Amino acid sequence: MNESKRVEIAWPNLGITVAAELDQRNPALAQCLWDALPYRSLQGHALVAGYHLYHVAPVHSLLHAPAEYRVDRRTVPDGTLFCSRLQHLGIKYGELTEPMTATPVGKVVDDDLDALAKAGREVWRTVYTTKEPVIAEVRRAGGPGGHDLPRLPVGDPHLNALVADVHAETQRIWLEPPRELLDLHAGRIPSGAGSYETVLTTLLFVNGETRPLGYSCYGGLVRAALDGMPMPWLRQMTRLLAATPAEFLGYCGLDTLWDFTQRLLAGLERLENHEDFVATMAHMALYCNCLGGWNLHLFPWQAGEHLRRVQEAV
Fold it and tell me: Domain Cucumopine synthase C-terminal helical bundle: where (predicted)?
């Protein structure tokens, strides 16, 4: 084990810090994470898979860095750290039910597993009930904390201006909930979206469109570009994948996202090389993933408290 790859994951408003060691199972991913430290991010909790923490890491290269070693998340020890192409840093702290392959990059030290489990329970309470944001700080062991979102340059001046605006907005909402989402969750929806004045239905559809826009559309476009897909095809796939969900989300109240998307679509022909395309789509991915994280935090999951999984008799 390379001792220089020891990290600390802290949740200051919970008063909990755990130590972890990065390993060589997926060295490229571990290096991407290490190079990005320190950073802060809104801490999330799995809502379907089980006892699992995750947050969006401000690391563009996680969208495409190679991963040589994969595991079934259910089978590895508690405390295992994962990096994913969804730009997540995940931490297993108990039983998982989802049969998903994942790419481990390290593990919380055994002495801190109880503290990790406590953090997991507290984060679940905030996500499910109180809605008080919990911020995670990931830093090199013994090193300073802090935070800075990376900025990728784009050669075309018009698209570089768009990327600058996307970066600034992402930075603005990274640790503070977006006003548009706060208004939406409070029922302030200027378009009137929500049949018979309902709000929960609109929130559900916004969640269902925002997450795949970041994960699948923009993250997928970055990977397609790095795999060598020709530029005309990349531009056409962007039009096909991005326009409809972004327009719907704009109708539901995410005007900034829709404005960015319209500027992107209007300038697509200016994207003449893969490097500029990757940089532009990576910034759109991080912005959408940030929106998705806040929407998952703000969503009134407790509205389904009366619905519980039925345990079949053996």
Answer: 160-298
* Residues 249-293: tens digit of each pLDDT: 999 999 999 999 999 999 999 999 999 999 999 999 999 999 999
- Residue 44 amino acid letter: G
Strands (E), the chain: 6-11, 16-22, 39-42, 44-45, 50-56, 71-72, 80-83, 88-96, 101-102, 104-108, 135-140
Domain of 172 in residue numbering reads as 157-301
pTM across the whole model: 0.96
| DSSP 8-state secondary structure symbol assigned to residue 199 | S
Rounded Cα distance, 106 and 8, in Å:
12
Residue 173 lies in a domain: yes
8 Å CB contact between 55 and 136:
yes
Give the single-character DSSP code of 93.
E
For residues 79 and 9, give the distance between their C-alpha atoms in angstroms, rounded to a whole number: 12
In a domain, 306, yes or no: no
Query: CA-to-CA distance for 79 and 10, rounded, in angstroms?
Result: 14
| DSSP line for 16-45 | EEEEEEE-SSSHHHHHHHHHH-SEEEE-EE
Instruction: Give per-residue pLDDT as tens, 97-109.
Output: 999 899 999 999 9
Asked if residues 174 and 304 have their Cβ atoms less than 8 Å apart, the reply is no
- The enclosing domain of 53 has a CATH number of 2.40.100.20
Q: Could you tell me if 17 and 118 lie in one domain?
A: yes
